[in-house]
Task: structure prediction
Amino acid sequence: MTSFGYQVLGFGAGGLATYEVDFLCVAGGGGGGGGSPAQTYSGGGGAGGYRTSYSTDSSGGGGSTESDIELVVGATYTITVGGGGAAGTGTGGGSGTGSAAGQDSVISGSGVSLTSVGGGMGESYWSAGDEAINGGSGGGAENFRQGSGGQGTANQGYDGGAAYGTGPSGYSNGGGGAGEVGGTDSRGEGGDGLTSTITGSGVGLAGGGGGSSPAQPGGTGGGGNGGSTSGGTAGDANTGSGGGGTGAGPGQNSTGGAGGSGVVIIRMPTANYTSQTTGSPQVTTSGTDTIIKFTGSGSLTG
Result:
């Protein structure tokens, strides 16, 4: 991608000047499931899909590092940073709503169309169909249905953990992370995320949310913690991590944790950087490269 600080250009279709850049694209994490009737416990939200081309890193779900993307000189590229999914809510008395999946993060423009899939929501008693817990990484299963966790997306994230135990006396599980299946380290824990070095220093991202009752921690990289009857915690902002699930005793209100918003990072030779951006990204340098970190949606001109 870089060559001793000099501008390196190629020519794409139609003879347009192009150059390659590295990327990291992480979608929003899924929300953790909310309180349910007594003795039912919600799963943690799945992490957002995690894709990267940076040579020292790897993509989520055991995927390989992807190829760089090629930008056309003077073309404008839209950066969409996915929001985290809303938390589920509920009462031990018998009413509530399911959580929501995370939103996709997208890099799009001339010759580029790249999407990371939002994390699956943490399953709860109120979930509207099991397909809703699939995502970049899958949401964790709740105990009442005794089902499998949501499915992750190939080369983006892992599955959520399956419920364990029997019926109301069983337990929910954690959401999948970019680095492992929910519940891998301990029953109910969120799956661990991955560490990216695209900014020049290691940053943990895309951990799954923890399951509930007993309350379990979220995965490394920002996953929210599960709660027993006190509510789950949110996934960390701009990590694409899932929110923690929760349970609720009779007559108790309990809300899961919201998913963390995603992030998109572009790393390019400084010689190619035009300074033409929208959305107020954070811009830093490392050696001969410029690093543009989008924590909200915006655009970049090649």
